[in-house]
Sequence to fold (398 residues):
Amino acid sequence: MVESNKLLKVNPPIHRLGSAGRWVRAQLQAGILSGTPVLVRIQNLRSPWLNRTMHVISFLGEEDFYTPLVAFIVWVVDAQLGRLLALLMALAFYLTGTCKNLLCLPRPPAPPITPLQRCNDWSLPSHHAVLSVNVPWYIWFSSIHANSALGPAALTFLFSAIALWSFLVMFSRVYLGVHSPADILTGGVMGCLLLALWLLVDTTVDSYLASSPGSSLVVLSVVILLLGVHPDPSPTTIIFAETTCMVGVATGFAIGRCHTPPGLLYAVMEKRHTYSSALSLVGSAVARLGLGLLALVLAKALAASLIRAVLAGLGRLAGVPTTCVKRVSKVTSERVHYSTQFLTEEGPTSPKSSERGQWHWSHDSPLNLDIPVKFLSYTAMGLVAVAIAPYLFHCIGI
Fold:
């Protein structure tokens, strides 16, 4: 429960649209609150083992799970599917983060809900819902398109696994008390629309990246523009920083696709006929995962240190004081849940410089390099995953 002397005042960017923007946000907030009775009923069914199970299932919709999954797909299963999946996830993350920061909507009221997970960002739409539609179902559609010879039993098993994965991740967020049914429904609809559009253009995008000489410059220009217009209202959360990381990875994937020879862009299963036995195939897959994930960790750490030093040096040359402080949410998990202390400011007020997002800079404070360092280091990770690691695999014959 929010203490009465700690009001949470938010100024949603959508209010800049005037009465229409305030009306839209009010309707969506009413939808969030209308799901409270459903959450209370689900909360009454909780048990220790169900709580643990739902935490595990919720993890299947988080970036820490998707990162090794995409790496596994790129290096072992289907290189093109993995690349396109990474781009789709970045689009989903960007659109969801943009909507969240435009609306600044609270999570379900606590009490009466007792959330089982700490969240420090806004509620609607749910990242988990959008991604749990995009990721599993894109894998499904790509699988049935690429493997038309799959029999009825294999198709039934794959469909059941995909459907359960998608549904249970969304349900886990409601069970844990961190999202309302409205958050999940909105995220699910957004995920379906985005997936439908992506299925129309995915292979065209991949072909463009491979065949157009200036595609790297186009990618960087589009990414910088998108991040530049991404809303980052006060009080700040971690949404923009997380979006920057995901978009950075996708940027690295796209640039790597532009400049890597086609002969290196293959997964183990795409060359399975070249392996003498199933054991050698499995050994190659395990070696790729172990070596590749180690390369990703090292690339991120080394790139972050190098980029931080270079940017700080450039700042000194330009006479601009810099710092690199990790971005943290100014909204605690207790305050992001709805209560009578969750207030919205009327009208497009201009926050003080000290209250703006940490990626803004004024002459009164050092320029925080956290966001550009994150973007460039995660871009390096994506580049390693799709270009440098495959070259390494090719050189050592795995």
Observations:
- The beta strands are 8-10, 322-323, 342-344, 367-368.
- Residues 278-318 form the longest helix (41 residues).
- DSSP finds twelve helices and four strands in the chain.
- Residues 206 and 224 are 20 Å apart (CA to CA).
